[in-house]
């Protein structure tokens, strides 16, 4: 199994990969640029390519994550910035050899037509992916439900992908905190979630997992991550999920708090020991 964490690029893309290897990660996630801006970054292509080379040599898989302001259903005043930023993220991820770029399912608040948000999101995907011919995918992430139920159900993610003009350029990223907080997975019904996801074809296109515990109970609709041993999801429930055959060799990336008393290195070691993986 491939456990890793989110890693800063303050030392560059190659530096992030080297740090991942240092802490025992077999995967990592990174922001390709400033996470608080939609600006297009003129990145160091040599650094990105060295990152890709290093990851191949050390059998490390990577995913990127869009900046926080990225909104697939943004209004006309900002959507062009979002589209340009997404293309920039895809270019950087591609040069880094990453599987793809994670983007949150869009939620249009206060819409008079409940379908408008879906239509905007599909239009954004179509416009961006019509200009993209690299190997990196856009990875659509499920929501926790803090802004309403939109984007929490596996059926929605599968349907949005199918309705785009370029479904082959879209994959999925499952966030375990989000799927628990939304109540889709309540900790005890993994077999049901697995069966539904398999029937829908969701797991067929799942490319990464954000492996997070939840600070709040299931159906809380609150997106607050917790460390794997210390959240509301029980260890045996997490272990049941991790033991599922639907995941194959995809990366499990921590987006959990990391402090001196329990670093991501400690958490990766904990996960490896829990799953009986020893180097």
UniProtKB/TrEMBL annotation:
What domain of life is recorded for the organism?
Bacteria
| Record-linked NCBIfam families | nfo
Q: What is this protein called?
A: Deoxyribonuclease IV
Please provide the record's keywords in A-Z order: DNA damage, DNA repair, Hydrolase, Metal-binding, Nuclease, Zinc
Give EC number(s), comma-separated.
Answer: 3.1.21.2
Q: Which PROSITE patterns does the entry link to?
A: AP_NUCLEASE_F2_2, AP_NUCLEASE_F2_4
Q: Does the keyword tRNA processing apply?
A: no
| Family designation | Belongs to the AP endonuclease 2 family.
Family annotation (Gene3D superfamilies): Divalent-metal-dependent TIM barrel enzymes
Its required cofactor(s), as named, are: Zn(2+)
């Amino acid at each position: 199994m491939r456990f890793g964490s989110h890693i800063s690029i303050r030392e560059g893309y190659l530096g992030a990969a080297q740090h991942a290897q240092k802490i025992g990660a077999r995967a990592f996630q990174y922001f390709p640029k400033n996470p608080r801006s939609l600006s297009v970054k003129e990145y160091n292509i040599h650094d990105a390519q060295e990152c890709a080379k290093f990851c191949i040599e050390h059998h490390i898989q990577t995913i990127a994550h869009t900046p926080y302001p990225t909104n697939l259903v943004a209004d006309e005043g900002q959507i062009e910035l979002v589209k340009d930023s997404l293309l920039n993220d895809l270019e950087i991820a591609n040069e880094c050899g990453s599987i793809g770029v994670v983007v949150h399912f869009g939620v249009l608040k206060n819409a008079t037509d409940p379908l408008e948000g879906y239509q905007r999101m599909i239009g954004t995907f179509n416009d961006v992916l019509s200009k993209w011919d690299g190997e990196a995918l856009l990875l659509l992430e499920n929501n926790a439900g803090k802004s309403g139920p939109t984007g929490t159900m596996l059926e929605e993610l599968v349907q949005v992908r199918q309705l785009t003009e370029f479904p082959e350029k879209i994959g999925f990223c499952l966030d375990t905190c989000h799927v628990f907080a939304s109540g889709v997975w309540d900790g005890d019904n993994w077999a049901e979630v697995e069966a539904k996801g398999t029937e829908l074809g969701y797991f067929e296109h799942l490319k990464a997992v954000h492996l997070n515990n939840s600070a709040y109970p299931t159906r809380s609709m609150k997106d607050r991550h917790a460390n794997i041993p210390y959240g509301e999801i029980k260890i045996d429930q997490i272990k049941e999920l991790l033991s599922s055959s639907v995941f194959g060799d995809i990366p499990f990336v921590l987006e959990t708090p990391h402090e001196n008393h329990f670093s991501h290195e400690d958490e990766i070691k904990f996960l490896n020991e829990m799953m009986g993986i020893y180097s």
